[in-house]
Amino acid sequence: MLNRYPLWKYLLILLVIIVGVLYALPNLYPKDPAIQISGANASATVSGDEMNRVARALEDAGINVASRSIDNGTGLFRLASDNQQTRARDIAGELLGQQYTVALNLADSTPQWLRAIGAKPMNLGLDLRGGVHFLLEVDMDAAIEQRLELNASAMRDTLRSEGIRYRDSEASDQTLSFSFASEADRDRARSLLASQYQNYSFSNTDEGRPGLTLSLNPQAVSEIQDYAINQNLTTLRNRVNELGVSEPLVQRQGPNRIVVELPGVQDTAEAKRIVGATANLEFRLEATDSTPEDQRQTFSFRNDDSRRAALERDVIITGDRVSNASTSFDESGRPQVNINLDGQGGSQMNRASRANIGRNMAVLYIEHRTRDRTVMKNGEQVTERVPYTERGIISLATIQSALGNQFRITGLDSPAEARELSLLLRSGSLAAPIYFAQERTIGPSLGQQNIERGVISVIVGLLLVVAFMIARYKAFGVIANLSLAVNLVLLIAAMSVLGATLTLPGIAGIVLTLGMAVDANVLIFERIREELRARPIQQAIHAGYERAFTSIVDANITTLLVAVILFSIGTGPVRGFAVTLSLGIITSVFTAVMVSRAITNLSVGGKSIKKLWI
Description:
By secondary structure, this protein is an alpha+beta fold.
């Protein structure tokens, strides 16, 4: 029989619509303004006492708290108004001090029954929802200092292997200095090092004993600085990818700064900790009684300040040789990090461990941080940032046998600390420390008024299309409008499920989709009008849908190809527009061909009709 679907096809269309409605529903629940409190490091947690102290302080300040909760050691205060967010954060931050991180947040308000099936609202871009903006400053002096220390360690190893006696070495201000027992040793060292390190200029010094000074040339300094900024860019992008942020912005600004923008982030405290973390590892041998005093350094253990150990200055390898890292538990159920080294790192580790079986090797954890200090300048109190470095031993174990590319790190405080350390190592080591020059939570960059206009444009466009279709095609115009409504629901559901980010250009894509969605119905209805001149009504309807299908597919495939090209070569807002347009094309074809025809079949299919209102 003409214009009849089998039952399974009706049920399939109904199922798609029901699923679309369910996964579009979370977008009706706006996110609650909130502040989030978490520990300054992964092992610190927020307890009920801290939550009670903050709650009392907010109440005394007249800030209305809608609710509060603790989840996995992180506290969350939902506020009644977003106008109180910044003030609440400042109060909590001042009360708790530097042991805790207080950040602005937008807490999900989706009902639990929707979250249970994986339904969540769309991600909104910086221009609609806002997010976190970090301006990071790369410490170029530290980048040069780190390169000097690594080169100095390699040079000392080279001199020892050649039997050249040196007294001590020092790295400072883009120079390396060595002193020797005799001029003959200095000359041999100069000849040997000059052939291997061509980025240095060499000069002899004679202050008490024969000396050799190596100075980095300007081109080498520039190359080190460029490498530091580019390596940090790559590392930060990897870390942001680990956070799962949609359409982030990580780009260089000026000679030594990096901008990081994370739209619609939920856990801003974790974002700050992961993005800003400058953790690195150094693997060193424990010093022995025969180690010269100038070649040893003493450090305390991270989890026990009372324990200390003296380590050799020479570094076996650093964290930048780690190719992969994962977490697990050892035989005693304690957290550990499994390390995979690259080829060069594995060779260095094997060579060092093979020659020192029976000695202790330490894993030194290094983190560059800053603290705020208030000083008086020109009669005014000014807060300035003071950088400092924390170093602590996280593992000290005896080398039982030669190590290779794979081994493990134990001695961590908690699984959370192990996960964070593995993430930082897996995403790559920073080539130089970074500091927060600026941090803020961004509101809608185009203003609330422009956002409302974007929403109004969708509503106005929808109403105009609805009015035109009813005026032009009467009863069939109603069918087209019903399928258009289903199309909008399915589009929102698809963007929510795929985690696509909606931006203001994305809203433009939705408006365009609404206009394009009825094109398929126009093709169908006009074809039905032509067929009515030569066929009975039921045959005309059947022929209209069947013969317009090819034109619909051809028209939408070309537009879809353009959208895919835009997505592949575009960035930021252009990609947001392309995503919305691509999904809109797919849902438009489905609703025009399947949903519209299903409604038509249920309305007039198989019935005896003398006149068709089209």
